[in-house]
Amino acid sequence: MIISDKWTDYEILDMADGEKLERWGDVFLIRPDPQIIWKNKHFPALWKKADAHYHRSKTGGGEWEYIKRVPKSWQINYHNLTFNLKPMGFKHTGLFPEQAANWDFMISKIKGANRKIKVLNLFAYTGAASIACAYAGAEVCHVDSSKGMTSWAKENLASSGLADKPVRFIVDDVIKFVQREIRRGNKYDAIIMDPPSYGRGANGEVWNIEENLYTLVELCTNILSDAPLFFLINSYTTGLAPSILGNILKMTIKKKGKIVSGEIGLPMTKSDIVLPCGIFGRFEQI
Questions:
Q1: Burial (CB count within 10 angstroms: exposed 0-12, middle 13-18, buried 19+), residue 245
Q2: Which burial class, exposed, middle or buried, applies to 44 when counting CB atoms under 10 A from its CB (0-12, 13-18, 19+)?
Q3: Helices 147-159 and 128-136: crossing angle, nearest 10°?
Q4: How far apart are CA 148 and CA 237, in angstroms?
Q5: Mean pLDDT of the region 223-233
Q6: pLDDT at 128
Q7: How would you write 183-212 as a 3-class SS string?
Q8: Range 250-266 average pLDDT
Q9: pTM for this entry
Q10: Which domains are present in the chain?
Q11: Could you say which DSSP state residue 257 is in?
Q12: 29 and 285 in contact (C-beta within 8 Å)?
């Protein structure tokens, strides 16, 4: 497991009974998490700090309960990166803080490459990975099917003081985009993807991770440069083992390098408990 333990503006304060109490800067949120199956709270008094509580409905979805006044949007920092947050439907805030360990990995690899690096970020959401790569000096192509998420990513780039960096934002279905890049002969030194379990593309294309992931990774090998720096896959799909992502990379990438896979997690403050928050598989140049 890799652990994102270098935050100052984010922390998990407590976890119990299917929920976690988190601090996002000055805002305290309670959100559900299916991995938290233990019952007892470690720090019961801290839960009174909550500004908002997301309640999941038994019939699907859910809603926010605002206990105190919560800003419509606010910012937090991770080292030199700045992210704009807001409470969204289905419990989200627009950022997955556990991914900080992957941002650190990307930044280190790009800065240590001593050459110009082109990065392709697929299913790029609000752009945290794109911003990390741009900060490290890479040229980035950011692809997501949602116009709203792409606009949010542009805001995050500007808030991080990186609006002048070479980041190209594309609203498109990722498979169709990669197919066009193959025809154009474009190449990338690093590819990142964070595919959903299910989803729809910009024009209603249906995505199913179990049916489409292998095909997408295989397609992406056609746009890898001759000396790729890394290829990173993240997933939050329930039941998908980390080794599956590693196996897909082993079967598709025929470049010299190493492949690792595992879990990614967030620590709880004043505790030795780590919350598993998803899986990753990555190829990296050695």
A1: buried
A2: exposed
A3: 40
A4: 23
A5: 97
A6: 98
A7: HHCCCECEEEECCCCEEECCCCCEEEHHHH
A8: 95
A9: 0.95
A10: 2-79 (2.60.40.1180), 97-284 (3.40.50.150)
A11: S
A12: no
